[in-house]
Specification:
With about 220 residues, the chain is α/β, with parallel strands linked by helices. The protein is about 60% helix and about 10% strand. It is globular, with a radius of gyration of 18 Å. Bound molecules: CO-5-methoxybenzimidazolylcobamide. The site of CO-5-methoxybenzimidazolylcobamide has 36 residues, from helix 3, helix 4, helix 5, strand 3 and strand 4.
Length: about 220
């Protein structure tokens, strides 16, 4: 079995230490970090996601798999960021209130750092105030929100409404994403951009900041 397949297998079993070691081994073998991410870590997580949906595995198994995923990502992070560009601006990124899913958000943070943004990660279960106060404090260009639950998607709207009520809506580029989010929803709540994956989020953020600064 290839090391990349082993990463996927061990991730599904929630064996975080093995995943961490195998990701290091794969990097030492010169395997492209994106292949390790997509064909190893994310492939394993997708299988777990399908099994979760089909009631073949339950929250504890998913939780250990997610820990293994985050452990693998921590080894991969410096390599994903290495390709970096010139600094362009700042982003505040978090998972919205009520939502504890952080893997996609962590990927967005990494990819944005790799695209040359200074990123402030406000974590999970983040209130509207946490997004806005941090953005004001650091002078951010972008507010990026992630949601994985249909029940927490409306909390993205809360952040936008709060920005409007404080007269700050136009000050920020508001970006949204996460598995249940789509372009229609983004339009409906008045976000500036929706992207389907972390790499596109980073690309779009960089482009939008540069456009705003040159306008
Ligand atoms: Co949860 N969970 N979970 N879970 N979980 C889902 C989301 C679910 C779809 C599973 C299912 O099939 N039933 C389902 C949601 C159903 C729905 O709302 N329609 C679900 C549920 C129901 C729940 C609980 C309610 C279960 C329970 O307790 N009974 C509970 C809720 C807890 C809470 O948040 N309050 C729960 C708990 C958990 C765990 C804690 C066990 C764990 C999370 C651990 C962690 O994150 N540290 C977990 C996990 C891991 C999942 C699945 C299996 C995987 C999610 C993931 O990390 N995917 C998920 C099933 C699935 O998605 N197939 C599921 C990998 C990640 C890279 O993808 O986050 O989508 P994703 O990010 C993508 C894009 O969406 C995008 O970029 C990434 C790719 O590059 N993206 C952005 C994300 N954010 C972005 C922001 C952007 C742009 C792009 O701009 C700012």
């Amino acid at each position: 079995m290839s090391v990349v397949n082993e990463i996927s297998e061990y991730l599904q079993k929630g064996r975080a230490k093995n995943v961490k070691a195998l990701v290091s081994q794969a990097l030492d073998e010169g395997i492209d970090p994106k292949v390790i991410l997509n064909d190893g870590l994310l492939a394993g997580m997708m299988i777990i996601g399908t099994k979760f949906r089909n009631n073949e595995v339950f929250v504890p198994e998913v939780l250990v798999a997610a820990r293994a995923m985050n452990m693998g990502l921590s080894v991969l992070e410096p390599k994903l960021i290495e390709v970096g560009n010139e600094p362009v601006g700042k982003a505040v990124v978090g998972t919205v209130k009520g939502d504890l899913h952080d893997i996609g958000k962590n990927l967005v943070v990494m990819m944005m750092k790799g695209a040359g943004l200074e990123v402030y990660d406000i974590g999970v279960d983040a209130e509207a105030d946490a997004f806005i106060n941090k953005a004001e404090e650091v002078g951010a260009d972008v507010i990026g929100m992630s949601a994985l639950l249909t029940t927490t998607m409306p909390n993205m709207q809360t952040v936008i409404d709060e920005l409007k009520s404080r007269g700050l809506r136009d000050k920020y580029i508001v970006m949204v994403g996460g598995a249940p989010v789509n372009q229609n929803f983004a339009d409906q709540i008045g976000a500036d951009y929706y992207t389907a994956d972390a790499a596109s989020a980073a690309e779009v953020a960089r482009k939008a900041i540069l456009e705003k600064k040159s306008a």
